[in-house]
Amino acid sequence: MGQQAITILTLTVLASAAISARQLVSPTGGVATAGGPILGAAETDAANGEYFAVNVLGSSPVIADGAITKGMELEVGTAGAAAEADTGRVIGIALEDAADGAVFEALLIPAGIHPPAAP
Fold it and tell me: Does domain 7-108 have CATH number 2.40.300?
């Protein structure tokens, strides 16, 4: 599945570093750092100083950092990829299983919003 996306909001952002499509993007337009916040997921490649599309709200294809299990919360892993959440900020939920390095669909969670815990 991995290439599917239901995007609600896409923004045009100025890259502050080289960006690859499907990488998680920091609020400053660079590659998101492990455990940190995101603006969204890159829709396209961009060189430093170029404008590019970032999926901010909805579901988006992202790259797996390690094995991913459908339904697990996600955080930023290495090199702007998504990893199963451990101690970092939750940035999304896996909508499908994925192997390390594979592209998979994730539901992006806006910064500061976290789904409530189950009762």
Answer: yes
